[in-house]
Amino acid sequence: MNFQKNWPMSKLANIRSFSLTLGLGLCLTAGISNNPANATDAASADKPDIKIKSPLIPVNKDFKLANGLRVVLSEDHSVPVVSVAIVYDVGARDEVKKRSGFAHLFEHMMFQGSENVGKMEHFKYIESAGGSLNASTHADFTNYFEKMPSNQLELALWLESDRMRSLKVTPEKFANQLETVKEEKRLRVDNQPYVPASIKLEEMAFDNWSNGHPPIGYFEDLEASSVEDVRKFFDTYYAPNNATMAIVGDFNSDEAARLVEKYFATIPKVILPKRPDLSEPTQTKAKYLRVEDPQAQAPAFWIAWKAPARREKDFYALNLLQTILATGESSRLYQRLVKEDQVALQVDCSYDERRGPSLFETFVVYKPGSTPEKVREVVFQELDKIKTAKVTDVELQKAKNQILRQLFSSNSHSSLQRSLGRAEILAEYTSFFGDPGLVDKDVEAYLNVTTDDIQRVAGKMFNHEGSTTVDVVPAKKKES
After folding, report:
1. Count of alpha carbons within 13 Å of 417, Cβ hemisphere only?
2. In the sheet where 344-351 sits, what is the strand order?
3. Alpha helix (H) ranges present in 129-252?
4. In which band, very low, low, confident or very high, does the pLDDT at 478 lie, cut at 50, 70 and 90?
5. By residue range, what is the domain housing residue 399?
6. What is the mean pLDDT of residues 229-249?
7. Do 169 and 230 contact (CB within 8 A), yes or no?
8. Whole-angstrom distance, CA of residue 380 vs CA of residue 28
9. Residue 270 falls within a domain, yes or no?
C-alpha cells in the first residue's frame, strides 16, 4: 500500500523500460540510433511506419449496474490469470482543510476487515489462493487490485464487494492505522533526502490548497481526526456509483458479469458530494524558497511550472518534451549538465499527470562548488534552445519510441502485456473520462505530435515569471 508522489530520487528509476511486443500488434519498421555517425542517415530517412493493432485492449462487455457501478470486461485466454482493478474517484484533492491525509489513511483502513473478513485477512485469502494485491493513493483517485489464478475470480469479487458494502471502522483499528501512517510519513517523507522540499515545492507552486497539499497529509491533521471522520469519509466516497471496476484475463464474460451482479448489485449507491474547485490562477511572478535539508548530502534545486491536465491539448507534446529533456543519458539536460559542463550529478524532469492542474518539474542535484544560479542559467539556456530552434525529427521520433516502449514493456507494472496493466488502464480511462478505448486515441495523439508542437509548447511553458524554484542546501551538522 502506498501513496503516489514522484519522489525525486526515484523518478529516473520509475521511468518504464521495456521490449516491444508483436503479440499486441506493435511494429517499428525503422529504428533510431544513438550513434552520431548514423544521425544524418536517420534524419534523412522516411518516418518509421508504426503500425499498432486497434483496439489495444479489446472490451467484451461494458455495462453499469443499477447502483451506478461501471464494469468493463476484457477476455484474454493466453494464460490462466485474471486481474481485477477498482478505481474509486476520490483522492487527496477531495479532502478538506484540517483533514488532509484522509484518502491515504482510508486506503489502509480498507484492509482492516469487513463484515465477513477479519483484519488483514484480505491479504491472507488472496495470497493463499496464489494471488497478489495492493493499493495506492493519488492526488485524484485511489485504486485497489488483485491478480489471481483465473479460477479464483469469484474470491476476488467477493472480497472487494464485502469491504465496499460493510467495512468495519472501529476506534482500535483507526488508532492502529493512524500510527502506521504516521510512521510511514516519518520513514518515506520526513527522513528522506529532498522529499520534504519536494512537498514544499508543490505547496508553493499551486495556489489552490486542493492541488498543493500532499496525499500523505500533515501530522496535525491526522492527529486531530477521529473515527467518526473516517466513517463519514467511507459513507461519502466508497460507494458503487463512485467506483469503476475492470476485469481482464482468462474468464467468460457472461459468467463474470453474473458474478459482478451477484456480489455488487445490492450495495446501495449514495449521493455524491460536490467536487472541489481545482482552478488555478495564471502565475505572473516567479516564486522562490530556500530549504535546509539535514538528509541531503549534495545541494539541489527544483524549477516547476503549472502544466496542462491529463489529455488536454498540450499534454502529449509536453510529455514528449519531458522525454527529450531528461530521459536517459542521451537527453539534452543530462548531456549538457552532467557530461559537457560537468556541474551536475543528477538531472531529471517529471510531469505529474493529474486530471486537474498539474506540474512540470525539473530537478537537479549539482556538484558542490557550483552555484545554483549558474546551474539554473544553463538549464534555461537549454530550454531556450528548444524555443528558438525546433528539435530534430530524430529526437522526436526517439521520444515517441520511448513512450511506446513504456506502454509495451514486458517488465513494466502497467505494461499491456500484463493483465493487471490492462485492467488498471481500462479502469482509469473509464473512471476518469468514461471511455475505456481512449488508450488507442492517446497513442495516436502521441504519434501525431510534430516538432512545431514541441517548440510551441516549450515557448508557452518555460518562462521565468511562471516558475517556482526551491533551493535545497544540506543542513550544517550541529557541533556536539
Report:
1. 18
2. 287-293, 467-474, 300-307, 358-366, 344-351
3. 153-166, 171-185, 195-205, 209-212, 219-224, 227-237
4. low
5. 278-474
6. 95
7. yes
8. 34
9. no
In a domain, 297, yes or no: yes
Q: How many domains does the chain have?
A: 2
| Inter-CA distances, 385 with 78, 332, 361, 459, Å | 48, 10, 18, 10
Question: Does residue 215 belong to any structural domain of this protein?
Answer: yes
| Inter-axis angle of helices 451-461 and 315-326, nearest 10 | 90
Q: DSSP H helical segments within 25-170, as ranges?
A: 39-44, 102-109, 121-128, 153-166
345 & 466 share domain: yes
The dihedral built from the CA positions of residue 230, 100, 10 and 311, taken in this order, carries a sign that is positive
Q: Which of 209, 240, 264 is the last residue of a domain?
A: 264
The answer on 197 and 326 residing in a single domain is no
CATH code, domain with 175: 3.30.830.10
Residue 37 in grid coordinates: 555517425
pLDDT at 219: 86
What cell numbers appear for 174 in the block? 483507526
Whole-number Å distance between alpha carbons of 357 and 352: 9
Give the separation between CA 448 and CA 433, rounded to whole angstroms: 21
- For residues 247 and 366, state if they share a domain: no
The DSSP secondary-structure symbol of 172 reads H
pLDDT (mean) for 132-153? 96
Q: In this structure, are 235 and 315 located in the same domain? A: no
CA 142 – CA 110 distance, rounded (Å): 11
* Structural domain contains residue 15: no
- The whole-chain average pLDDT of the chain stands at 88
Average pLDDT over residues 108-125: 94
With cell 467468460, the residue in question is 252
